[in-house]
Amino acid sequence: MTWTVVALQSAMLLTLAVTPTDPPSGPHLLRLIWAWMHRPTFYPLVALLVGGPALTWIAWRTPGRHREALVWAWAVFLVILIGAFGERTGVMLRVLWWHVNR
Question: DSSP characters for 82-101?
Fold first, then answer.
């Protein structure tokens, strides 16, 4: 389970690294158009949002030394995500939130 969480996190960071276009600033419509054009980049984010917490919970409930690796994986992932791709991730999360709640 821990390695699956790490793989999901790695896929998310790799996707953000190889698609370097940042969302446009301005009206919400421009951001929605950007999101529509970059729809495949949302797949790893959705997989991480759906599978990450569930797999983390299952892995955490399983006794063993992998728990430390799980904590480090989430900590390093969040530092890199916020530090390097914070604005883009924020826009992606807002677009997903809008899409789910429209």
Answer: HHHHHHHHHHHHHHHHHHHH
- DSSP secondary-structure letter at 24? P
26, 76 Cβ separation under 8 angstroms:
no
List Cβ neighbours of 58 (8 Å cut-off, separation of 6 or more): 1
Q: What is the DSSP letter of 40?
A: G
pLDDT tens for the 102 residues of the chain, in order = 899 999 999 999 998 888 867 777 878 788 888 788 888 888 999 999 999 999 999 999 999 999 999 999 999 999 999 999 998 899 889 888 988 898
pTM for this one?
0.85
Name the packing angle between helices 28-37 and 66-101 (round to 10°).
Answer: 120
The answer to whether the beta carbons of residues 52 and 8 sit under 8 Å apart is yes
